[in-house]
Amino acid sequence: xxxxxxxxxxxxxxxxxxxxxxxxxxxxxxxxxxxxxxxxxxxxxxxxxxxxxxxxxxxxxxxxxxxxxxxxxxxxxxxxxxxxxxxxxxxxxxxxxxxxxxxxxxxxxxxxxxxxxxxxxxxxxxxxxxxxxxxxxxxxxxxxxxxxxxxxxxxxxxxxxxxxxxxxxxxxxxxxxxxxxxxxxxxxxxxxxxxx
Amino acid sequence: xxxxxxxxxxxxxxxxxxxxxxxxxxxxxxxxxxxxxxxxxxxxxxxxxxxxxxxxxxxxxxxxxxxxxxxxxxxxxxxxxxxxxxxxxxxxxxxxxxxxxxxxxxxxxxxxxxxxxxxxxxxxxxxxxxxxxxxxxxxxxxxxxxxxxxxxxxxxxxxxxxxxxxxxxxxxxxxxxxxxxxxxxxxxxxxxxxxxxxxxxxxxxxxxxxxxxxxxxxxxxxxxxxxxxxxxx
Lengths: 196, 233
Description:
The complex is a heterodimer. Chain A is mostly helical.
């Protein structure tokens, strides 16, 4: 086969990618523009995916992404390598910015996408494998133990950046019902994840 | 309806932390949770832990390549307003008694200075805020210059190495607004306190210890070490 799928990334690829990313992020904190460019090249597709999913509009998502990287330039010095995964730290900045934009622009939540899992490429990239550490395995295990509607609501809140009110509207259920589902789900999740 | 086991009243605090981390809350509920981040270090830690835990889900978001020229556009914008340089502060041993929880407790039981009736502030009207700091009898009086939007107070400020002291404004029941980081200014310390809405008497300020460079999330993440209310001088 000429154009077969790329070989799946392995754990050692992931470790090397994570290390490159940590180095680029730390050097960006010291105002190294070359490192910032490397950081952009390594992460912009993932962060754009996060923004696009929440903003639901390519132009808006690019504007938000641009703000996200300016924030990263200013705040990279605050990254603590031992505490958070670098890609998760960066993606959280993107998610928060995108949510802020969508809420301040008064935009409706993006259209429902039936199965989030379908969106993910089967062949995880190195940056994705970085996220699949033990903590992630535990989270997935615990989410799997929830009722489907609890799990769906929590996942949708995360991926699409929805509020309780938006989740309730999307599923056409009363707000109190949605809150009740999600809170019960979060309590079970908390019990399952334990206290570290 | 199936609300027999409704938990909508009296939510577990750790669920509120998860709700805030996920972004489920809005309006007054969100503002309340954000204020708790400033007031309750344990709550702030829980929010952070949930954020880290949920961060694992980013693996499920499909990557999408942005427009090729966007990278250049971002680089071109780096020469904007000067960034805050880490390492401003002279390292200064911070007393262990400055633990956030106890300090906040002290701050909370001190009566606020009496507020004058709301008045329209002329551009140059001076305003002050008396910060109570544990271990210091007299309040540290900060002056707010409405002309340049700077809040200035006697220095130096004790900030542990590797941290920045960030100023926050809390107007009414809104969520805290992130303002500038304190830096040395000729024997005093000052922070940029410009905000989208004009500072009015009654605005509450808080100072939290954040990672160097300020809160990465735009929300307070570290312990609150002092707070004050803005009043007319």
